[in-house]
Write a structure and sequence with these properties.
The complex is a heterodimer of chains A (309) and B (298). With 309 residues, chain A is mainly alpha-helical. Chain A has 9 helices and 3 strands, in the order H-H-H-H-H-H-H-H-E-E-H-E. In chain A, 71% of the residues lie in helices and 9% in strands. The longest helix of chain A is centred in the first third of the chain and has 33 residues. By secondary structure, chain B is mainly alpha-helical. Helices cover 68% and strands 11% of the residues of chain B. Chain B has a 3-stranded mixed sheet with strand order 1-2-3, covered by helices on one side. In chain B, helix 4 runs antiparallel to helix 5. Classes of the chains: A mainly alpha (309), B mainly alpha (298). Chains A and B meet through helix 4, strand 1, helix 9 and strand 3 of A and helix 3, strand 1, strand 2, helix 8 and strand 3 of B.
């Protein structure tokens, strides 16, 4: 997996960006498989070595795997064009996926939490067993792999200006930090006799995972509830529309996110004595300038109303 | 909506099902413990889960009722679908537990001979859940509320389970010792199917599904009736819980003034709101056409 990543990396650092567009898809799949392999590897070693912290770390990688999968597969599904049954397209599927993933993550983290709290209690009573040393090596491998992967995704994301790739890179970077913690904990438990370190690190990981899944849940809820997008985006739309000749006032701007697309509902006020034809052309002009400013994926619905001071 | 009382009924019906499920849970666990029927106790635990799920639906309905605000310009209707998803998960887990229990009994071959009290309790709980199902189904259909319909589906699953338990008990009395296990297996498959259907419904609502073609036709017909509307160029709809959001583009003569066009769109809004039920918002765009050249849109 690593050598594959490295080969792709050397491709991306080259000047030929054209080659890299095909590489974005490949990079996405590389992230999926690398994270899945890491998760399975750590879950297996965590299980046989009895290290709770490594099990938690496996959950981290599993989350990265799912996130990477949503980017690759979700992009395909949510990019499906609108059909009569889904007149606004399929963009919201991404939010639904996020909702389901965050709930799944919460439930599995809860198990980890109970499990590690239990063994922390055992350590307190002096009956805890330190994990086997193999967990340490697994954690080291995971640090290296996560670090490589984040470096690689950072390169691809930077070259292609892909925010989702950069997000993946950040995920893997925090994964590397988490694995360092695990390595230290296993070492401390094994040689220092601090058996409690391992479940303690697992608890910290569980806390991080819970807070992350709550963030994910909030994000997905916002999307599903048609939460108003950033005030700055609305301000931007308003300022672009206001300077279009013939627009007297922008009276309403509402925008909602659906997958990667933005749906804007807005009302502009024009001279009441203008003919319908001219009013419509002003509206077209507004739509075009907003699409020029915010990108082609923006859907703009302009309502024209007479201006009455 | 058939009657004005439907709104009233829609408010009380979900609360009754929280109350009814809680009562059923207590009743089943107590009678099950007294008569020594493990099946009845397990059924009681299931009812407790139903009570929780119903409580969640009551909360969701409260939230869905909130008016739209700056941060949620399209209102809170979508929460009903999220509660549908939750209810479907509850059903799924319930079906799985029934399924694995039945498999276990098959393997171990342990059969308790249940007392008459268990049979009586099952009949009472069957009546209970059937009443809750009828009430929620009626209110949910009249108000087009996905959350209430989900609640109704849960009560329906409960009544089917009770029927199966009853058949199993009767079969055991007649000497077919495996009757209750077979009944439980069939019921669990049925509930599995139901939960998956509910899950897909919830997902569909969340991804901006359009409304029924009949409703769309009603909207088009209502707007075509308005004077000055030459045609409907496009219509987009999406479901928002009990109500729907409409985006419509009508064709109007290009030669009249913007002020007159505005008068026409206001008339269309009024006509559609009056003729068609369950609309949370309608946005009407206009498209200019040259009527003298015979430019008609369909």
């Amino acid at each position: 997996m690593l050598s594959m990543s490295r080969a792709a990396l050397s491709q991306c650092t080259g000047n030929d960006i054209q080659k890299c567009v095909a590489c974005e898809k490949k990079a996405g799949w590389n992230a999926v498989f690398a994270n899945l392999a890491l998760a399975l590897f750590k879950a297996f070693i965590g299980y046989i070595s009895g290290s709770k912290a490594l099990l938690g770390d496996a959950l981290f990688s599993f989350k990265d795997f799912i996130a990477a999968l949503v980017i690759v597969v979700g992009f395909k599904v949510s990019g499906k064009p609108a059909d009569p049954q889904h007149p606004y397209g399929h963009g919201k599927i991404e939010f639904v996926a996020l909702l389901l993933i965050s709930i799944g993550l919460m439930i599995s983290t809860l198990f980890l939490f109970v499990h590690s709290a239990h063994s922390l209690l055992n350590c307190y009573h002096g009956v805890g067993n330190p994990p086997r040393l193999i967990a340490f090596w697994a954690a080291l491998i995971s640090v290296a792999a996560n670090y490589q992967l984040s470096h690689y995704l950072l390169c691809v994301g930077d070259t292609l200006k892909s925010p989702s790739m950069l997000a993946s890179a950040r995920h893997n970077h925090s994964g590397a930090v988490s694995s360092i913690m695990v390595a230290v904990a296993v070492l401390g438990a094994h040689f220092g006799g601090f058996a409690f370190l391992d479940p303690l690190v697992a608890l910290i990981e569980a806390a991080c995972l819970i807070s992350m899944s709550i963030e994910m849940l909030k994000d997905s809820m916002k999307g599903l509830f048609d939460y108003a997008v950033h005030p700055e985006a609305v301000d931007r739309i308003e300022s672009v529309a206001r300077v279009v000749p013939g627009v007297h006032k922008v009276s309403k701007v509402v925008a909602r996110q659906s997958g990667h697309g933005l749906w804007v509902d807005m009302t502009i006020k024009v001279d009441p004595l203008l003919s319908h034809q001219d009013g419509y052309l002003i509206g077209q002009h507004v739509r075009e300038s907003i699409q020029a400013a915010l990108g082609e994926t923006t859907n703009v619905n302009v309502i024209i109303e007479p201006y009455q001071p | 909506m058939k009657y004005p009382e439907c709104i009233q009924c829609g408010q009380t019906s979900p609360k009754w099902s929280v109350f009814g499920n809680t009562l059923a849970a207590v009743f089943k666990v107590v009678v099950g413990t007294l008569t020594g029927s493990k099946g009845l106790v397990a059924d009681g635990v299931h009812s407790a889960a139903d009570a929780m799920s119903s409580l969640f639906i009551v909360i969701a309905l409260k939230v869905a009722d909130r008016p739209h605000d700056d941060k949620h310009p399209y209102g809170y209707g979508k929460i009903e679908y999220i509660s549908t998803l939750c209810a479907s998960t509850f059903l799924f887990v319930g079906a799985a537990s029934i399924f694995f229990d039945a498999i276990k009994t098959f393997k171990l071959g342990v059969h308790e001979i249940p007392g008459d009290a268990a049979m009586l309790a099952t009949i009472i709980s069957l009546g209970f859940s059937y009443l809750m199902y009828i009430s929620n189904q009626c209110a949910g259909t009249q108000l087009c509320s996905p959350a209430m319909l989900a609640d109704a589906n849960e009560s329906r699953a409960d009544s089917i389970t009770s029927v199966a338990v009853l058949l199993g008990l009767i079969g055991a009395k007649l000497g077919f010792s495996n009757a209750d296990t077979v009944a439980a297996l069939i019921v669990s498959l049925f509930i599995f199917n139901m939960s998956i259907e509910m899950f897909l419904q919830g997902i569909n609502g969340l991804i901006d599904m359009s409304v029924d073609p009949d409703i769309m036709e009603g909207i088009v017909a209502a707007s075509l009736n308005v004077e000055g509307v030459a045609g409907v160029r496009s219509i987009k709809t999406r479901q928002m819980g009990q109500k729907n959001w409409i985006d419509i583009e009508i064709a109007v003569s290009q030669n009249i003034s913007v002020l007159e066009v505005h008068g026409i769109t206001e008339n269309v809004r009024e006509a559609v709101m009056q003729d068609v039920d369950g609309i949370s918002g309608i946005s009407i765009a206009t498209y200019p056409i040259d009527e003298t050249a015979g430019g008609q849109f369909q």
